[in-house]
Amino acid sequence: MEKREHWGSKFGFILAAAGSAIGLGNIWKFPYIAGENGGAAFVFIYLICIALIGLPVLMAEVLMGRTTQRNPVGAFKKLSGKPFWVAVGSLGVIAGFVILSFYTVIAGWSIGYIVEALKGSFSQFSDPAVSSAYFEARVGDVNWIVGYHTLFSILTMWVVYAGINKGIEQGSKIMMPILFFLLIILVIRGITLPGAEKGLNFLWSPDWSKITGQSVLIALGHAFFTISLGMGAMMTYGSYLSEKDHIPSAALQIVFLDTLIALLAGIAIFSSVFAMGQDPAAGPGLIFHTLPVVFAKMPGGAIWAVLFFLLLTLAALTSAISLLEVVVAYFVDERRWKRHNAVLVFGCIVLLIGIPSALSFNVMKEVHFFGKTWFDNADYLASNILLPGGGLFIAIFVGWIWEFDKVLIELKKGSESLFDTYPIIIKGWRIFLRYLSPVMILIVFLHSVNLLESAWQQVQSSWVIILMLVSVLIKVFQNKK
Hints:
Layout: H1 10-21, H2 24-36, H3 40-68, H4 72-79, H5 83-119, H6 128-139, H7 142-161, H8 164-191, H9 196-204, H10 213-225, H11 233-238, H12 247-275, H13 291-297, H14 301-333, H15 339-359, H16 374-401, H17 404-412, H18 416-421, H19 424-448, H20 451-461, H21 463-480
Helix pairs in contact: 1-8, 1-12, 1-14, 2-12, 3-4, 3-10, 3-12, 3-16, 3-19, 4-5, 5-7, 5-14, 5-15, 5-16, 7-8, 7-14, 7-15, 8-12, 8-14, 9-12, 10-19, 13-14, 14-15, 15-16, 16-19
């Protein structure tokens, strides 16, 4: 068995873990859901949600990895040994396979659009309809979509193949500063455009009238998914930490960087979209349908388009390498594989499994399983079942199953002074992890599979019956008195 690697520095871990958290969702999803749900009001709700669900579970997941020095399966096996919890750990490895198989397809679009921008393909885009038709033509081309899916997969394998220090850590130390630098350039460009203030108002003006129960659910869901919880990535990265590393401060820095990048992306995107007179409510189509039109109308647009899609590719790559590392770590730790062999074999398997997802936009477009395409099924399985399920069980395990005295001993390693000075932090973390976080994650799960909406619709349609039952219960209670 190969000697287990460790991060060269805590800074390297923070950059790698932040890179795992910072992905496609930060660049396109957070800005538009914030804009659609009250701007600054939504950001405030989101920050509360990330404190309730993100930080506690992130600390728990990293702690399990550091304590056991193992992947998700090995961590649960070492701490519990019971088949059920080992199976829970397997969810992370399976999630890594499934997510990476379709994530590389979307990330491939980013590389493809760097090339399209260099070719000047966006210069003739007059409105989003033209841009949308062009995008459909690109993803409808089997060679284009499979080719870039393959290229991105190879890039991911290349970084992970080099190992923790020379690959993931060094790669993160290069990619993350470049990502931040590109984003700052795009922010400066966006806010200096005439009319940019409208975009800033859209994102930052608090509109409390738009905050509804649905807005809170969206904030909860994004707070959970944005930090890569439940997929074993943070547990795996935590397993390369030493006992001297300060977990609470590292978790806080990861969350801070993740949120900062999302907010900066919102400023860069919406200042440009409003300045160029485009529709900010384009939703998920904002990146590939609307922004190419924005770049076409912007002076020097080709250059800004290249920079933006390079930014998007780097964000996707830092997340993808963490997903592949979960799978590789399992086979290195538990099956005694050599890292290079595990990367090549399972990287290629993920690549092959991803091809049907790529074909879901062309030759397999009409092939449906359970009413969905292969791509949609993979997305649904990972996002709606595997991730919330994994996060829920991690919170329950650390909060209830793993004896808290042992948890406390492990958590204090590297951060004794913090907990000795502020013991309330331990009490608060324990309460959040035991009660608030599991409930919040369960709500995210129910919302993601549309059970909350169905239940609410049933309640609405049966309100007369409910009122009758309540009145009967009141009468019974009065009679007993």
